[in-house]
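Dig into what follows:
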Amino acid sequence: MNIVETIGTAAVLEQLAALKLARKLRGVNPTPKTEQECWNALLEEIADVQVAVEQLQLKGSQAFAIEETVRAKTRRWKQRLLAREENNDESTYPGKPENP
């Protein structure tokens, strides 16, 4: 079974948008697209995901489970960023798009 069969074409495209932006920001195997074009593609994929979530109309325990997961992931990100600061790691994230 390949990745497209496992997660679906749409999910693969979303991953590719994020990977193109990451490669552009790191300068490793960059795409010919501009950084702004990469941000625009990623933002479009995020909007698609938000529309899909809204259409699911999750309620009750499903919505609570998602909120709990978001809180846990946010805590983990904060911990990682604090650890990076404490270790004086200068490989920081370049930033957000100028005009999304």
User: Anything to note?
Assistant: The first helix runs from residue 3 to 7.
